[in-house]
Amino acid sequence: MPAERWKEDEVLLERLRKGTPGAVEELLHLFQGKIFNLAMSILKNESDAEEATQDVFMTVIRKADTFKGNSALYSWMYRICVNTCLMRLRGKRRSETVSIEEFMPVFTEEGMHASPIDDWSKEVERKALNEELGEMIRRFTGELSEKYRVVFVLSDIEGLSNEETAKILGLTVPAVKSRLHRARLYLREQLSRYLRDGKAE
């Protein structure tokens, strides 16, 4: 973490610890949008995401004095957000998630793909600005089970490194890479079917 960013985080945290006027507003200004978007990506429900976001900021404010500065402030907040969202998910029955195993590529004994994999990259480029395609990507992401969805959101949507994602989720880097790879394969297959057939499964 850049020294300047670390110093700014420390100043903000110290203001929060002391209850300095304006500190909470500054925290919200800096992170509310990011935390809400992350919660929304995981929970897929606006009211749930709003409640989770409120819970995250209440936790951050309440536990500001426990933050040791071993990671970036946003990383700590993302970890709190992910945990908050996962607790909400586990409190509900998530029957709409699907198994991604059936979408994994099948290999022959020689290590070759048993069936050809569609090259949809050019088609994706052509439809990149298509709102419907964007909506389908969000839908397919939402269909992933939580352990794959959270890794995909942190890595590919939030742009965190594998190391940062692993630290936030308490996983090893190889575990993050494995889950991310499987999530991407699932999304690629679903998008390929959609672009080929013009409809989702």
Describe this structure in words.
By secondary structure, the chain is an all-alpha fold. The protein has two domains: 3-90, Rna Polymerase Sigma Factor, Chain: A; 101-197, Winged helix-like DNA-binding domain superfamily/Winged helix DNA-binding domain (Arc Repressor Mutant, subunit A, Orthogonal Bundle), CATH 1.10.10.10. The protein is 68% helix and 0% strand. The chain is built from nine helices and no strands. It has helices at 3-18, 23-43, 46-62, 73-90, 121-126, 131-143, 146-157, 162-169, 173-197. Helix 7 (146-157) packs across helix 9 (173-197). The longest helix is centred in the C-terminal third of the chain and has 25 residues, at 173-197. The N and C termini lie far apart (43 Å). The model is unreliable at 112-121 and 124-129 (pLDDT under 50).
The top-level CATH class of the largest domain is: Mainly Alpha
The CATH architecture of the largest domain comes to: Orthogonal Bundle
Main β-sheet, in a few words?
none
Shape call: elongated
Helix content: 55-70%
* Unreliable stretches covering 5 or more consecutive residues: 112-121, 124-129
Rounded average pLDDT: 80
- Beta-strand proportion: under 5%
Number of helices: 9
Looking at this protein, list some descriptive labels.
elongated, Rna Polymerase Sigma Factor, Chain: A, 68% helix, mainly alpha, 201 residues, Arc Repressor Mutant, subunit A, 2 domains
Quick overview of this protein structure:
It is built from nine helices and no strands. It is mostly helical.
